[in-house]
């Protein structure tokens, strides 16, 4: 009995059925992406339709719209580049404080131009002094950190480079976790390639959200052996944990639901630079226990945790003994290098890699 099966059937299915499935899949994906982008309008429309007609399909679409809104609006709960209100139009000049400085614009790997302020020691000291690469919190601009930078400049005899993230102050672009990674990388590369900076004494510093940026930079394979030291102040373990602290129950959400993760607790074990943890015990925004957990998890062989009883989230740097703790740690690291206890940072020039690395009222930095 002869077979009636068409020998060309597999190729026909490949050309018709499978192709149709692929086309429909692409169309559905396109619609989902569009739907999520315009989820606010969709949510209002679907809410009205559900109220008038009900129905399982409309309910599921409404649920997807709500989730899409929550996902895409997370940035507005984390980044505050316009608080205070003038932060995007006015950045305080370092000249007001009598500081010698350079105003810089640095091009990132993805073509964004970010603003930075390089506050330098006198010419006879600049090339031998440590340089602090300063990453600030989630609100304001670098001008709001000038008094802090002046204190580091005057008491610790450091050059200080303040970095303004994309979407902040005079910098181009919009804030994002991936973008901040590229901003930090571009700033570090700038310092490593400056002839008037000692590339073996670059200190990566981050406060609050900036602490997560600093930890990320110090843990990247390209820079893990290039930092003289890492200093983090009043920072968190990761965004999902912080979200749970601020709103009980969010820890039950799957990890992928968080648009921004800043997973410092997963990265800190990969850091190798000597690390100083500065923790204000009166911090009512970020629990001090997060700083302690980061300290315990750190992969550095030389690490210190210094606490300040009266230090709140934003003003720990004004506490008695704060600057002394930083100066003492810098001296300890320098001595450790001299005695060979720890290896010195790699100082050869670095070039950019070919592919990218992987509310109303007063707002507190996080």
TrEMBL record:
GO MF terms held by the record: palmitoyl-(protein) hydrolase activity
GO cellular component, one term: membrane
Keyword Membrane: yes
Transmembrane domains' residue ranges: 20-36, 48-73
UniProt keywords, alphabetically: Membrane, Transmembrane, Transmembrane helix
Annotated AB hydrolase-1 domain residues: 132-254
Entry-linked Pfam families: Abhydrolase_6
Domain of life: Eukaryota
Entries under PANTHER family matching the protein: ALPHA/BETA HYDROLASE DOMAIN-CONTAINING PROTEIN (PTHR12277), PROTEIN ABHD13 (PTHR12277:SF81)
Protein name: Protein ABHD13
